[in-house]
């Protein structure tokens, strides 16, 4: 017989406390949340937006050489369309490399703001060619003299335009790379104003 007997009320009291103790609830998980099949068990699944972006990137990746070539053609076609729009609007973001930059833009504006003899070269050449074809010696002599006069006038005007453009570029952009900008502007003078690309952004007589 035990020297220290345990009271019966203490035994019944401890059992009643154990029965009334709340059970520990397991953490509730969202069954609707998608789980990455490659993720190990017990790890949280990625978010829905991340999973969709991953699936989209896998879907957009070309699987064959034919699909890759088609995608390159589509991208090239889109880029060319943007360049055509930029040629009309003067958007610097999509212009070709030879037309980009503030120096080239200033050269274009300088040429477009003034009359240049060289821009009338094509229509004058057509008139002179027609006069030279006519079987009249006097008209042929006039056509030859007119041709020489136009050539000399274009050379003189181009030299003067080149000097003025170079001076203005040095004043406006003293620290910028201006290599090829004068030749770029003079080549633009050989085109008729309405046919120039990028389209003129200034009016005649307007100071750039």
Describe, in plain words, how this protein is organized in 3D.
This protein is mainly alpha-helical and 208 residues long. It has a domain at 115-191. Helices cover 58% and strands 0% of the residues. The chain has helices spanning 8-20, 48-60, 65-89, 102-112, 121-133, 137-172, 181-189. Helix 4 (102-112) packs parallel to helix 7 (181-189), helix 5 runs antiparallel to helix 6 (137-172) and helix 6 packs antiparallel against helix 7. The radius of gyration is 41 Å and the shape is flat. Mean pLDDT is 78; it is low at 16-24 and 26-31.
Question: What keyword list fits this structure?
Answer:
208 residues; flat; mainly alpha; 0% strand
Quick overview:
Helices cover 58% and strands 0% of the residues. With 208 residues, it is mainly alpha-helical.
């Amino acid at each position: 017989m035990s020297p220290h007997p345990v009271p019966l009320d203490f035994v019944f009291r401890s059992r009643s406390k154990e029965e009334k103790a709340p059970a520990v609830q397991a953490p509730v998980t969202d069954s609707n949340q998608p789980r990455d099949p490659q993720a190990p068990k017990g790890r949280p699944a990625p978010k829905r937006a991340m999973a969709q972006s991953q699936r989209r990137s896998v879907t957009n990746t070309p699987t064959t050489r034919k699909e890759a070539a088609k995608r390159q053609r589509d991208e090239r076609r889109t880029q060319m369309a943007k360049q055509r729009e930029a040629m009309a609007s003067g958007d610097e973001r999509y212009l070709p490399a030879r037309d980009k930059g503030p120096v080239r833009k200033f050269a274009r504006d300088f040429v477009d703001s003034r009359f240049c003899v060289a821009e009338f070269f094509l229509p004058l050449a057509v008139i002179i060619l027609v006069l030279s074809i006519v079987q009249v010696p006097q008209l042929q002599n006039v056509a030859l003299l007119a041709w020489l006069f136009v050539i000399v006038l274009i050379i003189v005007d181009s030299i003067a335009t080149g000097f003025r453009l170079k001076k203005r570029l040095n004043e406006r952009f003293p620290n910028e790379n201006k290599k090829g900008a004068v030749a770029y502007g003079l080549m633009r003078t050989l085109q008729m104003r309405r046919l120039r690309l990028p389209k003129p952004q200034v009016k005649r007589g307007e100071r750039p």
